[in-house]
User: Which sequence fits this backbone?
């Protein structure tokens, strides 16, 4: 049984992101996966890394629980919108506060290199846009995916990291969104 953690990075519990998370969960449940969830909008934590890495800020109970779920998972599905070419501030703050040295990575002494502490896990990023996905890729170079995939997940040891981009969502029809929910449910059934 595959252990899957679904992370909903949208602060609004009634968003299309929440519907996508539910669709993925439905498909993965049908495939027999064991599933846990983190709904960042329902969590209680300060998203600001107050002192950077100079001084440790104690983790709130919700972040300690999140770290345990991340360690438990074999596959993590990140579902979020892209705003201003980036992840929502809440998701960025969640990563800043949880993917800490000693948890996600460890710098080697007297070296510029590091050890990846979250190896053995795969990930899938599913995100929405207000522009066509091809435009985000071709014209803008997919900056969020580079940041999230390369500089966060692969930096910490996740491999492989897959991506699915859905857009445009703004002004999309119920039929368009419905087709995507079916596709996302299928991703869950395939445990991808």
Assistant:
């Amino acid at each position: 049984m595959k252990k899957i953690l679904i992370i909903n990075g949208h602060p609004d519990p009634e968003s299309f992101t929440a519907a996508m998370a539910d669709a993925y969960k439905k498909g993965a449940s049908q495939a027999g996966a064991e599933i846990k969830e983190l709904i960042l909008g329902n969590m209680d934590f300060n998203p600001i890394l107050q002192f950077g890495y100079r001084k440790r800020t104690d983790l709130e109970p919700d972040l300690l629980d999140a770290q345990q779920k991340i360690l438990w998972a074999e596959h993590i599905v990140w579902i979020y919108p892209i705003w201003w070419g980036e992840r929502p501030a809440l998701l960025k703050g969640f990563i800043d506060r949880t993917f800490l040295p000693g948890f996600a990575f460890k710098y080697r002494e007297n070296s510029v290199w590091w050890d990846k502490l979250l190896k053995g896990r795969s990930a899938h990023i599913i995100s929405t846009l207000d522009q066509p996905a091809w435009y985000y890729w071709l014209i803008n170079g997919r900056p969020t995916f580079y940041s999230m995939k390369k500089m966060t997940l692969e930096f910490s040891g996740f491999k492989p990291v897959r991506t699915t981009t859905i857009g445009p969502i703004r002004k999309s029809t119920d039929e368009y969104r419905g087709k995507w929910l079916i596709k996302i449910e299928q991703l869950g059934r395939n445990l991808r």
In short: The beta strands are 3-8, 34-39, 75-81, 105-107, 114-116, 122-128, 161-166. Helices lie at 16-30, 61-72, 89-98, 133-138, 143-156, 174-189.
